[in-house]
Design goal:
By secondary structure, the protein is mainly beta. The protein is built from three helices and eleven strands, in the order ββαββαβββββαββ. The radius of gyration is 18 Å and the shape is globular.
Length: 231
């Protein structure tokens, strides 16, 4: 399997004095951890050395996930965007490719509501609000399918660790390449077939509504149901 962590230039989708939006590659940590591996926040700070002294995170993507990543470039912008995320005023849209679920299960549009518990390095969907469980909610809709795979549109409403990955596995559709959540189908090294396609938010300085999209990684062309489509 091909490795997706080879360093390259940042793919900037939008930038002004207040915000920066980049297309994060799969395989790159969002922020530093104890492993000392390269991370997106560090690369951004290195690129902005001498220009700005503040870069604030207002969201996170898992290391194995690609797509739209939003950063604040001023403290007021960070505060405003964090509040919008907290109050669920940011619309997030993901694409995921999954094998067909259990035989006989209908692939249908639905809004999933349930509970999720955070474990050491993963999350678990549970049926009741047990100790430590949080509510989880997201809209799931199939966009295309072939004999083996289904392409899903996913719009999370809550923001929980690994919520998309855990919920899709719970529904019987583990994301391609996601061994942590039970996928038996291989994908690219250091990547799963989950991509943050777009974020829609209000600009923290002007209040203008913005929708920023990130193109699918080139290797998604290996899925015939993703080729030559605009989502």
């Amino acid at each position: 399997m091909r490795c997706m962590t080879k360093p390259g230039p940042l793919h900037i989708l939008y930038q002004d004095r207040h915000v920066l939006v980049v297309n994060k590659p799969a395989g790159l940590l969002f922020q530093g951890d104890r492993t000392g591996r390269p991370h997106l926040l560090g690369r951004i700070k290195a690129d902005l050395t001498g220009k700005r002294h503040f870069v604030g995170m207002v969201q996170r993507l898992d290391r194995v996930v690609s797509g739209v990543s939003l950063f604040a470039l001023t403290r007021p912008a960070a505060s405003a965007l964090a509040e919008d995320f907290r109050k669920r005023r940011v619309d997030k849209h993901y694409l995921a490719v999954c094998p067909h679920g259990p035989i006989g299960a209908a692939v249908m549009e639905k809004t999933f509501r349930g509970y999720i518990r955070r474990l050491h390095d993963s999350s678990l969907v549970v049926d009741t609000p047990a100790l430590g469980a949080q509510t989880v909610c997201m809209h799931v809709a199939p966009l295309a399918a072939d004999k083996r795979l289904v392409l899903f549109s996913i719009k999370p409403i809550t923001g929980r660790k690994h919520q998309i990955r855990a919920v899709m596995a719970y529904l019987g559709y583990p994301i391609v390449g996601d061994k942590k959540y039970g996928s038996a189908r291989p994908f690219m090294q250091d990547a799963i077939a989950l991509h943050c396609l777009s974020l829609a938010f209000s600009h923290p300085a002007t209040g203008q509504g913005m929708t920023i999209e990130a193109p699918l990684p080139f290797y998604w062309d290996s899925f015939s149901l993703c080729r030559s489509r605009k989502w």
